[in-house]
Design a protein that fits this description.
two-stranded antiparallel ribbon, 5-stranded mixed sheet, alpha+beta
């Protein structure tokens, strides 16, 4: 399978947002991509009847791996109606993988992973220096295709 040409970080993010909006629309969910000046919400989505609304933060990688880099603010960015949709782009003719995760779970997991990393000595026994990078993993596929977690289907 032919791999995709490597995209810039900006184009990768935009592609992920449009892919997510397309998947939501395909499922009968209204999806509106926000303007670029909103750094916490990429998509507003609602049920067909408009009674249920959620905000979505999209994170995309083009490696196909089940890990994504986040900023430190993701440890505190959480709300009942806020979700992350992590997108793993693959080859040219392959459908992306989508991981749908409530923001409370993302915040809790990335904080725990980062704390563990800080408390684990480096390869040469040195302490790790704190930074703003956090990583979310879903190696087991626990959140793969979990569109039901959004509770937007009538």
């Amino acid at each position: 399978m032919k791999p995709l040409e490597k995209l810039s970080k900006g184009l990768t993010g935009i592609a992920g947002e449009y892919f997510v909006a397309g998947e939501l629309s395909r499922r009968g969910i209204m999806a509106s991509i926000t303007l670029r000046n909103n750094d916490s919400i990429d998509i507003h989505a609602s049920s067909g009847d408009g009674k249920h609304l959620v905000a979505i933060q999209v994170k995309t990688n083009q490696t196909g791996r089940r890990s994504w880099a986040l900023g430190a603010k993701s440890e505190t960015l959480k709300a009942v109606n806020l979700y992350y949709i992590f997108v793993a782009l693959k080859g040219e003719n392959e459908r992306a993988d989508y991981f749908i995760v409530p923001s409370e779970i993302v915040a809790k997991r990335i904080k725990a992973v980062h704390t563990k990393w800080l408390n684990t000595p480096g390869k040469k026994g040195q302490a790790h220096k704190d930074n703003s990078i956090r990583t979310f993993f879903d190696d087991s596929g626990e959140f793969l295709e979990r569109w039901d977690l959004l509770s937007l289907n009538d």
